[in-house]
Amino acid sequence: MSDTARAGESDEGGRGAAEATTDEVLAEVGPRLRRIRKERGATLAGLSDATGISVSTLSRLESGLRKPSLELLLPIARAHQVPLDELVGAPPVGDPRVRAEPIVRHGRTHWPLTRQPGGLQAYKVLEPKRTAEPDPRTHEGYEWLYVLSGRLRVVLGEHDVVLEAGEAAEFDTRVPHWFGSTGEGPAEFLSLFGPQGERMHVRARPRARSKEG
Asked: Which residues contact 98 (CB under 8 A, 6 or more apart)?
């Protein structure tokens, strides 16, 4: 059998499966309409008054003898004060949590927080307590750091600073830079990195200034 013939069979099979799934969804709309109406203590006559849809049409919808349409379902959803999805039984939303495995690189643990390759990348990073000499590097891109806990040493060009928890830094990575342990304890921070030009435009809440006097 040729590849074209196999593709044709595959397309027909796919269309058949999709049509079967649609028919199954539509077949469950009627019982769902009846259940929702009874849960609200409404009668067919009362729902007819609220929607302008005849009692006979509502009855046929609930029994499956009338195919549901947006023209019929929208006023019913408004009358019951429920989302349209609840009437048609929309599929549940997928789990949005990112479950990537941690990556250990040069003694530092990274937890990826983004799923898609390319573009902006986000990581939660744990820098262990250790003694390390700054070794500034350069590369294309733009980076943003936010310290969650501990203290993080950041060397950027001629600057050598320590970020406390709640502080952030952002910089062009073409400037020689390095960040790591202060040697006092571990530090946990967020790192967002993007190609050159994709700046994060994120700011940390400024620390409250100490009162004078």
From this structure: 112, 113, 114, 115
Residue-wise pLDDT tens digits, 151-180: 999 999 999 999 999 999 999 988 999 999
Query: Are the beta carbons of 89 and 31 closer than 8 angstroms?
Result: no
CA–CA separation, 198 and 156 (whole Å) = 19
Report the range out of 10-19, 29-38, 48-57, 113-122 with the highest average pLDDT: 48-57
What are the backbone angles phi and psi of residue 188, rounded to the nearest 5°? -115, 130
How far apart CA 180 and CA 109 sit, in angstroms, is: 12
CA angle, 119 then 99 then 189, to 5°: 65
Alpha helices (H) in the chain, listed in sequence order = 3-39, 44-51, 55-63, 70-80, 84-88
